[in-house]
Amino acid sequence: MVRRFCFILTLLMMVVCRPAFAADEVDSLINQLPHKTLRNITPLLDQIAGHKDEKVRFVLTEILNGDLYYLKSNRQVVSVRKSDSGDYKLTDVLSLSVLTQDGKPSIKKIRTSNRIRSHIRGLLAQIDLTHDSKAVRLAAVQEILENIDEDTVALIKKHQSNEQDSEIKELMATAVALYQLNEGAAKEKIAAVTALKESLQPEVRNAMQVQLNRLAEIEKTELTKDDRALQKALTSAVDSIKQKRKFYEFIENLFFGLSLGSVLLLAAIGLAITFGVMGVINMAHGEMIMLGAYTTYVIQQMFPQWIDYSLFIAIPAAFIVSGSVGILIERGVIRFLKGRPLETLLATFGISLILQQVVRSVFSPLNRTVAAPEWMSGSWQINPIFSLTFNRLYIILFALAVFFALLAFMKRSSLGLHVRAVAQNREMARALSVRSDRVDAITFGLGSGIAGIAGVVLSQLTNVGPNLGQSYIIDSFLVVVFGGVGNLWGTLVAAMSLGTINKFLEPVTGSVLATIIVLVGLVLFIQKRPKGLFPQKGRAAE
Amino acid sequence: MMLDKLKKLGSLPVVVGCLFISTLYVAICNLAFPEGSALHVSTYTVTLFGKYLCYALLALAVDLVWGYCGILSLGHGAFFALGGYAMGMYLMRQIGDRGVYGNPELPDFMVFLNWDSLPWYWAGTDSFIWTLFLVLAGPGLLAYIFGSMAFRSRVSGVYLSIMTQAMTYALLLAFFRNEMGFGGNNGLTDFKDILGFSLQSDTTRVVLFAVTATFLALGFALCHFIVNSKMGRVVTAIRDSENRVRFIGYKPEHYKVWIFVVSAMLAGVAGALYVPQVGIINPGEFSPLNSIEIVVWVAIGGRGSLYGAIIGALVVSYAKTRFTAIMPEAWLYALGGLFVLVTLLLPKGLAGFVPQLIEKYKQNKTDKKPQEVQS
User: Fold this and answer.
1) Which of A351, A384, A522, B372 shows the greatest Cβ crowding within 10 Å of its Cβ?
2) pLDDT digit string (tens) for B139-163?
3) Contact B14/A at CB under 8 A
4) Closest residue on chain B to A275 (Cα)
């Protein structure tokens, strides 16, 4: 029993202490570097590279870049950086601590030659290819793919069988086939083309184009049978790749369009309620968006340590801030102007000017940047030429969530029922004991609050400034009018289609002209169908 | 008989008289009295007030469609700017080879963009007569196309307002493009002379002021006669109830297009008079904010009253100049506050406020009289 226990203990100790032993070994190996000459350094490098340690990669890269030195005094290996001011910054490679020293240090470079450098490159690639992290391995293969040669392809072949991950395996196969395409005999090339037909790597396409060009330069009569077959295979492969790229380009445009559409949707949906349901033209709607954006900014300033989560506080806060300002406007001004839409337009425009100036006085007229949280950055790489950025993806999802929440509120809740009742026939609703004044205030607050939420989203996309809202007000109105006033689904369709049309026009015409074309197209559309895409039917429409 | 005729003319003689006297005053005080004299009016002031008169003409144009036809145009700045650009093109051509690049044919910005020749729409702009035609035709044509399409499909009310705003916004974006051939971002500027007279000289400035005043008087007379003509009665009826007018057998869209085009041309003339005095025209004039400011002038002055529009433009512009000089921060507060207060408290504007007071005073008197008898 005791013996068994001792045995387990020993085993445990071995497990725990092993890395320490290994680290010591690496350290001693690295410390030998200054003693070696150009001729006998390679075996030592191989030995160092044989260890799994983060230090190894660092040391090898430093040698490769010519930044590794040793102190003449005690042969301590250091990495040296020269700062802009001409000072030397010495870092001990073993402990990674910065050494303090005065004056110009007495150091000597660890010398390398071309041969050694290319050897180190191979070693680095090998380290990365056997790395535990998938991302590192993937990046290593990707790098090899970009400048493939005999040595690197040999490396890949060596690790191909050990690789477990299917994605990396596929990329490795691509690399091997690509080498075959570049250097192999005609028969091998044809095989490689068939293997590469599905690949979307830009290198593959370039290599195929190179081969095609090479064949095109040869006289027709001198082409062998294999050459012709290769040419045929290449042409069809290039075509199919081109088609695929076009398809993904289309999807990408669609994605951009939908994300722009989501922004428009968020900006317009509040308006769809105040304008569409209440019939009130609120020119200060853009400023509600702006207030939401500034709320995000303020909250980030208040909690700088929680930038990752501040958006979750900012969304309800912006809703409350913009919503209460909206209710104030409704109670203070708009309710006195009932039934006079043009006067309402002017009064709310005045309010928008005042709000802009308030923001200018409080926050200064300069733009403010709102930091994006960590989880919003980055992208989802679907294949080598197509990726979806997370922030756009989240915005689309968020806009849709807000839309459906609002739809549910309008269609399912009793308050929503009251809002719709007042919108359809105020007198009748009042007769049925709906408190129309209260409903008006709540509706306006709701529309403004959603504009505030739109401001939170916009703060993630652009700088926050006093004119932020103004640039969206015309677009928002157009979306609402295009979709059909008083119809939330119409607003959704209108926002998404306007966004998509804009993004598809942009590469062809440039962004300014695309905006103009969309505007003119909309004006023409409203001439044809003054009530928008989905006009309201029945007596409420009059 | 005489009195009846005078009554029919309404405020026309007063306005024309005021304009004539102020022109005379400005001309004499600027030219006859030397600088430093107490009675001297500086050329800066002359130009400033000339600018205000242009704004007044513009306000008149907006009042004609909004106050009398109920069309709230948030895009009249576009017509103003188009008229201005037409005049700017002429003034640009007058520079000739005195530009920075010394090209006798092409304006500087075209040389800068490496253009070989003038675009087709610049043809004939060196002729003043053709320019005058363009000043009227450019805005008029745009208004005709826009108006006939919008009014025929019975777009009205707020929708129309937003569409006019979209129109001027689209033009703003378009004129910002260098490819449009209107100087892009910088617009047209560095003008030297008009009809051979230097734009820098005091006499030209005073003459320009006088011309502006004359056109304002003419514009006022024109609007006055339109409003009081039979056609004007129909237009006013359309404002009050378009459907009834249609059922009686009129075609409201024809009247609306017609009045919209006249108004756009007036705005164009205002723009053409504005540019030589200010010395620059750029796409900023197309910005929706400018158009809305015009509407404020009319709203504050009193829509549905022609002299009210003029008063509104003069008062608000003057206030803006003062405010932005003394405390620039406060201007937007003041402007925004004016919007809210005027719409809430003075739905008929300043012009409606005074009669309202008089009415109240009279009523008080009649109310009091019986009391006096009793006591």
Assistant:
1) A351
2) 999 999 999 888 887 777 777 888 8
3) no
4) B158
